[in-house]
Amino acid sequence: MGGAEVDSSSTPESRWSLEGTTALVTGGTKGIGHAIVEELARFGAAVHTCSRNEAELNECKHEWGKKGFRVTVSVCDVTSPSERQKLITTVSSLFDGKLNILINNVGTNKMKPTTEYKAEDFSLMMSTNFESAYHLSQLSHPLLKASSAGSIVFLSSVCSVISVNVGSIYSAAKGAMNQLTKNLACEWAKDNIRTNCVAPWFTTTPLAEPFLTDENMFKAIISRTPMGRVGEPKEVSSLVAFLSLQQNVVFPATMSVHNTQI
Ligand SMILES: NC(=O)c1ccc[n+]([C@@H]2O[C@H](COP(=O)([O-])OP(=O)(O)OC[C@H]3O[C@@H](n4cnc5c(N)ncnc54)[C@H](OP(=O)(O)O)[C@@H]3O)[C@@H](O)[C@H]2O)c1
C-alpha cells in the first residue's frame, strides 16, 4: 500500500480523539450543523461556526459554553465572496493559520417543479449549496495544508445519487458536490488533506420540516425507507466526526452514505 504512513503505535484513545485539533463548521446554529459542532467539540476540537443570524449564534455559543465546549462564532453569509474571505481570515487568526477540519455543511432548498424555477432560484441554490463550499475549500486549503493533517467533509444528500422528489437544482448541486469530493480527495491527498462527503437521507431538521410535516410527502418518504423512519442529526454528526478523526487513513477518498438511505 503506497501513500501516507499509518502510525501502527496509535492507541484507540488517540484515534478516537480530536484533542488539539481545530475545525470550521458552516451553518452550526441549527439541524445537522449544530449536531456536528457539538460532536466535534465533545471529541475535544476547538470549533468555529457561522450562520447569518448573530442573535442565534450568540445564543448557541452561550449554551455551548455551559457544556464546556470550545466554540467561537461569527456572522457569515457563505454566498458572499467578501464574507467568505472574512470568515477564513477570522479562522486563520483564531487558529494560528492552521485548520484540521472543514465541514461544508450549509445548505438550502426550495422545492418546485423544474418548469417553475426562476433564474434567481437557480442562482441562490447553486451558490448556497455548491459554490460556497467550493470557494471555502479553496480559501481553506493553505490552512488545512499547514495543519499537516487536514480533513474536509461535504454535506451532500441521497438525492445526489438517486432521483428523490426534492427539486432538480438542489439535487444537481449535491451531485456536483460528490464529484468535487472525488477531485479534491485525489488532488489534495499529497497535501495530507483527506476529502469525504456524507450523503444523508431525510433527517429531522428545520430544512426538512416541510417534507416531514406534509402527510403525503412523509408517507412517500417512509415508503422508500427500509428502516421505516427518518434520520436524526446525531446520526449524521457521528459519521462526520468519524470521517474527521485524523487516524482514519482507511478512508482517504470515499463517499459515505448515511445509514437510513433507501
Ligand atoms: N435535513 C435533511 O433531511 C438533509 C438531508 C440531506 C442533506 N442535508 C444537508 O445537510 C446540510 C445541513 O442541513 P440541515 O437540514 O441541518 O439545514 P438547516 O436545518 O436549514 O440548517 C442550516 C444551517 O445553515 C445556516 N445557513 C443557511 N444558509 C446560510 C448561508 N447562506 N450562510 C451561512 N449560513 C447559512 C442556517 O442558519 P441561518 O439560516 O440563520 O443562516 C443553519 O444554521 C445541508 O447541506 C443539507 O443540504 C440535509
What do these coordinates show?
It is a single chain. This protein is an alpha/beta fold and 262 residues long. It has one domain (18-203, 233-249): 3-Layer(aba) Sandwich (Rossmann fold). The chain has nine helices and seven strands; from the N terminus they run H-E-H-E-H-E-H-E-H-E-H-E-H-H-H-E. A seven-stranded parallel sheet has the order 3-2-1-4-5-6-7, sandwiched between helices. Helix 2 links the parallel strand 1 and strand 2 (46-51). Helix 2 (31-42) crosses helix 9 and helix 5 packs parallel to helix 6. The longest helix is centred in the middle third of the chain and has 28 residues, at 119-146. Bound molecules: NADP nicotinamide-adenine-dinucleotide phosphate (NAP). Belongs to the short-chain dehydrogenases/reductases (SDR) family. SDR65C subfamily. This is Tropinone reductase homolog At5g06060-like isoform X1. Keywords: NADP, Oxidoreductase. One of its GO terms (molecular function) is oxidoreductase activity.
Q: What portion of residues belong to β-strands?
A: 5-15%
For the record, what is the CATH homologous superfamily label? NAD(P)-binding Rossmann-like Domain
Structural class: alpha/beta
Quickly give the CATH architecture.
3-Layer(aba) Sandwich
The number of domains: 1
Low-pLDDT segments: 249-262
CATH topology: Rossmann fold
What is the CATH top level name? Alpha Beta
Number of strands: 7
Order of helices and strands: HEHEHEHEHEHEHHHE
Note the gap between the termini. Answer: 33 Å
Tell me about the biggest sheet?
7 strands, parallel
- The pLDDT mean sits at 91
The hetero molecules present are: NADP nicotinamide-adenine-dinucleotide phosphate
Q: What sort of overall outline do the alpha carbons produce when their principal axes are compared?
A: globular
Number of helical elements: 9
In the sheet with the most strands, the strands line up as: 3-2-1-4-5-6-7
| Percent in helix | 40-55%
Radius of gyration: 18 Å
